[in-house]
């Protein structure tokens, strides 16, 4: 398996523009997670899905952020409009089950977003 | 609310030394605890996972321990090598989510 795939790997945009980050989880995994990592706040869980259904989006910073998972092999995280404080590395991870029985999460390489 | 703390924030040691990284958490009601490695500009890779019923896990030169009652875990790295240089993160599986520490940045000097 190719692992978790994220695109784009780097994104530079101007404030106010819409940004869409994409993720393809590992085939067969039923959980998908979106994280954001910054120097100041470390790694934060934004939202996670189980069987394509959003379970907990309490980490989504505000209404400018939205995430979808239309099918088991694809998810998007959208920021509209983007702001400079959204600059961060966004990771997607997937796992088989919730991890309570010992299943680990597998991370993608991340998307480095810079909003000017 | 679960909080995870890692000490030290950074560590630099000569090659060949044995070292210990520390992780503490505030709520002992956890499913498991994991140690991850992050290389610069890369994603995270799981190193070891300890279930709440276990005391330790070993993989090669790495040994992780878990003391749930005191809310502590350690990651022991034996005979450190320059290739071990990375940031090591501890994560606690609590309420079906991973709660993360800020990480320890480790530098192994040749």
Structure at a glance:
The complex is a heterodimer of chains A (116) and B (110). With 116 residues, chain A is an all-beta fold. Chain A has strands at residues 5-7, 10-13, 19-24, 31-38, 42-50, 53-56, 65-71, 74-79, 88-95, 106-107, 111-115.
Task: Please provide a written account of the structure.
In chain A, the strands form two sheets. In chain A, strands 2, 4, 5, 6, 9, 10 and 11 form a seven-stranded mixed beta sheet that branches. Chain A contains no helices and eleven strands. The mean pLDDT of chain A is 93. Chain A has strands at residues 5-7, 10-13, 19-24, 31-38, 42-50, 53-56, 65-71, 74-79, 88-95, 106-107, 111-115. In chain A, a hairpin with a 2-residue loop joins β7 and β8. The N and C termini of chain A lie far apart (36 Å). In chain A, 0% of the residues lie in helices and 53% in strands. In chain A, 38% of the residues are buried. With 116 residues, chain A is an all-beta fold. By secondary structure, chain B is mainly β. Chain B is built from no helices and eleven strands. In chain B, the strands form two sheets. In chain B, strands 2, 4, 5, 9, 10 and 11 form a six-stranded mixed beta sheet that branches. In chain B, strands 1-3-8-7-6 form a five-stranded antiparallel beta sheet, with no helix packed on it. Chain B is globular. At the A-B interface, β5 and β10 of A face β5 and β10 of B.
Report strand % of chain A.
Answer: over 45%
User: Which residue ranges of chain B are poorly predicted, with pLDDT under 50 across at least 5 consecutive positions?
Assistant: none
Number of strands of chain B: 11
Largest sheet of chain A: 7 strands, mixed
**What is the residue-mean pLDDT of chain B, rounded to a whole number?**
94
Radius of gyration of chain B: 13 Å
Percent helix of chain A, as a range, is under 10%
> Which range best describes the helical content of chain B: under 10%, 10-25%, 25-40%, 40-55%, 55-70% or over 70%?
under 10%
**What percentage of amino acids of chain B are in beta strands?**
over 45%
Derived structural class of chain A? mainly beta
Taking the sheet with the most strands of chain B, its summary is: 6 strands, mixed
């Amino acid at each position: 398996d190719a692992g978790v795939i994220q695109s784009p790997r780097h994104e530079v945009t101007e404030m106010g523009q819409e940004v869409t980050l994409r993720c393809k989880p590992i085939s067969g995994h039923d959980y998908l997670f979106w994280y954001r990592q910054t120097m100041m706040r470390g790694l934060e869980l934004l939202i996670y899905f189980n069987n394509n259904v959003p379970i907990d989006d309490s980490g989504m910073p505000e209404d400018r952020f939205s995430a979808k998972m239309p099918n088991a092999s694809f998810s998007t995280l959208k920021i509209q409009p983007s702001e400079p404080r959204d600059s961060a590395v966004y990771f997607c991870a997937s796992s088989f089950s919730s991890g309570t029985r010992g299943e680990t999460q597998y991370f993608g390489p991340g998307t480095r977003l810079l909003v000017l | 609310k679960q909080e995870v703390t890692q000490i030290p924030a950074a560590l630099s040691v000569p090659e060949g030394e044995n070292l210990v990284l520390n992780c503490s958490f505030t709520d002992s009601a956890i499913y498991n605890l994991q140690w991850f490695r992050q290389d610069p500009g890369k994603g995270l890779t799981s190193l070891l996972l300890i279930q709440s019923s276990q005391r330790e896990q070993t993989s090669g030169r790495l040994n992780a321990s878990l003391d749930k009652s005191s809310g502590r875990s350690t990651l022991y790295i034996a005979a450190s090598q320059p290739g071990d240089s990375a940031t090591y993160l501890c994560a606690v599986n609590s309420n079906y989510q991973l709660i993360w520490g800020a990480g320890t940045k480790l530098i192994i000097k040749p």
